[in-house]
Amino acid sequence: MSKLLWDVIRGNKSSIWVEWIYITRLRDRTVWAVSETTGSWGWKKLLKLRSLLLPHIRFLVGDGITFSLSRDPWHKLGLLIHLFPRGLNLTWMDVAAPLASVIINGQWVWPVQGYRRNSIEFLQILHSLPTIHGGVDRVKWKHNGGTFSTASVYDHFRTPGPKVGWSSLLSGVFKISRNSFILWLAILGKLSTLDKPWLSHLGRDCILCVAGLPETHNHLFFECTYARQCLASIRQQTRFPWPYREWRRSILWASQAWRGKHIVHSALRALGFDHIPHLTGTKQEALSRGGMRNIHIRLTSCRGY
Predict the structure, then answer these.
(1) What pLDDT sits at residue 299?
(2) Overall domain count for the chain
(3) Per its UniProt record, what Pfam families does this chain match (predicted)?
(4) Which of 29, 116, 185, 233 could serve as 90's disulfide partner, Cβ 3.0–4.6 Å?
């Protein structure tokens, strides 16, 4: 949505959607001066982003033809119509007047004389006038070399966190989005295993085996009888070793051993952990059926997976 708002701010009339917004929503107003309490849900959400983007936008005053005198935040203090309505009244100008009304030959020329020029409101406007750069009015993004992008917006509003080594396990040309999402939950320990307090009504013992052990992430992927047979079957077909039977150490080892864009590493990242969606799906099926089906049937489906 930030990209859509940016196109409206810049007045990108090459976009049919932006042209429609200017005709039906804005009319003779600017996107900064319209109320965010009217219109469709999407339009109101778009307008709520204005306060977030504004500190990251630079308004470069040129000839003043594009910018509105009172309805665009070209001034360092913000929209003049909201901050100093009386100060604008002292200029005897219409609120829809362009900024060019107070620019002559590249200089600020405000049509205020006598005692009105010394009013508090008007002095506040004059005190922090921006530099006139010449040319046409421009709107620039303050970051990323002045080039707006969704990635740049995301980088400035997200909460940065430490870089994790296992992120490479979620990418690759052979990865399936659904499987990557389940693997991400498994790495974070967020899968709905039976050791979670909110699943206590289902019991804590693993339903995939008969060992009577609590179902944790490590048990589900390495200690469970069915999981070990499933992993051994995949390992036999793909012919790659799996040195650890502990979940955290396995993640650390795989993220280092299978790093890079080589096709073999991409294939191993896809095959090495794609049994996890099968295990979680099998567990859900077993819970709904009240028990496991024949393990040989399930192993056959695991190989096909």
Answers:
(1) 46
(2) 1
(3) zf-RVT
(4) 116
